[in-house]
Amino acid sequence: MMGIGRYAPSPTGDLHFGNLRTALVAWLLARSTQRRFVLRFEDLDPDAIIEDAYAAQRRDLEALGIDFDGQALSQRDRVDAYAEVIAELVNRDLTYPCWCSRREIREAVAAPNGPVEPGQYPGTCRELSRAERAERAESGKRPALRLRSDGATYSFDDALVGPVSGASDDFVIRRGDGTPAYNLVVVVDDDFQRVDQVVRGDDLVSSTPRHLHVAWLLGIEAPTYAHVPLVVSEAGERLAKRDGAVTLSDRRALGETPEQVRAALAVSLGLAEPGESPSMDQLLDRFDPALLPRQPFVYAPAGNGPNTADNVAGVTSVTESSERNSSS
Ligand code: GLU
Questions:
Q1: Mean pLDDT calculated for residue range 217-228
Q2: What is the predicted pLDDT for the residue at 120?
Q3: Integer Cα distance of 275 and 164 in angstroms
Q4: Of all protein residues, whose CA lies closest to atom 3 belonging to ligand 1?
């Protein structure tokens, strides 16, 4: 059976250089292994969504040569499926309500003898008595729903990061406002779309044991993983709009063509020399996951003239890693 790879952006604005770079690696890994490649919009947070971003993101990806099979999937069309899975987990007694605020969680983790890693839930609401739950419920605050993980640990062999093992914590599967959470739906949707190869930013490595826990509970076969080092600013921070000409539109406004931006992406991945303009087929020929850079890529700020493949900074080692989706 033919495998399937995917790219799963959130339609919250234009994709930046780091997003485009991860998408290009996902496409190259899928196509070089004869996989189909699908698009999924992670759009469950209505406050963050920008309606124009769906079409703009797809247009930018396609302008670079990143093509998709079939229609994009939107998570907001899938809320019934998520509700069913959540009901199943509740029925299996694998969940509990949690009233903790972010601050309470931070403080519990920072406490002496704090039981868990930063970003992991310390278990405050896990063993509340019936009376304690009733008391919290009376506050009127709507609880989040957490999945019991019982410290289950998982190992996987990441195509870029190498062997990884880590514990799942009792993470949120439904927020207090009723929205199903990323760490649950990512697994449900990858299964629904028959994705067997997951490529994404390496800020999600630490959340992957949670995904493996969900897959195990639901009897879903785990995909293979490749976590791509992030693109960072010169200050070592995750790349963002404030870092200058970071999107395809920004760079087009500076006079670059999509081919030039593709070339810059290829240079950043060690797949082209500055000044070359490789086609997607050439990139596929050259692509070897074993040779991809394993360090964050430092993005040179634009603004001193057009930001071309020639003046995008080389690969620099940055040791801080960032955490995302880990505390929610
Ligand atoms: N939606 C996430 C992002 O935009 C990606 C999540 C995933 O690929 O699993 O970074």
A1: 98
A2: 87
A3: 37
A4: 9
